[in-house]
Amino acid sequence: MIRRRLIQPFVELLRQGMSPHKIALTVALGVTLGVTPVLGSTSLLCTITAIALRLNLPAIQLVNGLAWPLQLALLVPFLRLGARIFSVKAPALSVSAILAMIHAGAWHAILTLWTATLHALVAWLLVGAAAALSIYLLTAPLLRRVWTREAPAS
């Protein structure tokens, strides 16, 4: 099941001309951009990144979509880390409270959470840079190994 659901789609991407380097970069940036602590921004960020770096747009959007639960899980920790970085009181919010606030009125939620979100973005930039590099360095050798094993089959 893991091979059919996870490995085979990446092998198919390899056969479409993507190099292991590009796939590793796509995964690293898709995950990192996918957990940006600004709900609703990740698809645009991934699209711009894919176009700018000539990455496979559907692949980065797939990774972005798979990272969505992680984005929700990391939203409050990024808000808290951002508050700690800027030495301010962290907002006493949960993910469900944030989603309810957005559902009640997106503009009001933006205005209410503006400063906390900017602080969370700074935290994300610090953590995200290290995370993207780590993910790339972990996935690139693995994908090169898959490439050399699967390339003769194509």
Polypeptide structure, described:
With 154 residues, the protein is mostly helical. It has one domain. 81% of the residues lie in helices and 0% in strands. It has seven helices and no strands. The longest helix has 45 residues.
Question: How would you describe this structure in keywords?
Answer:
single chain, 154 residues, mainly alpha, elongated
Count of strand segments: 0
Helix tally?
A: 7
Radius of gyration: 18 Å
From the N-terminal CA to the C-terminal CA, the straight-line distance is 21 Å
The whole-number mean of residue pLDDT values reads: 87
Question: Major sheet: size, sense and barrel closure?
Answer: none
Sequence of secondary-structure elements:
HHHHHHH
Apparent shape: elongated
Strand content: under 5%
Secondary-structure-based class equals mainly alpha
User: How many domains?
Assistant: 1
Provide the helix percentage: over 70%
Low-confidence stretches: none
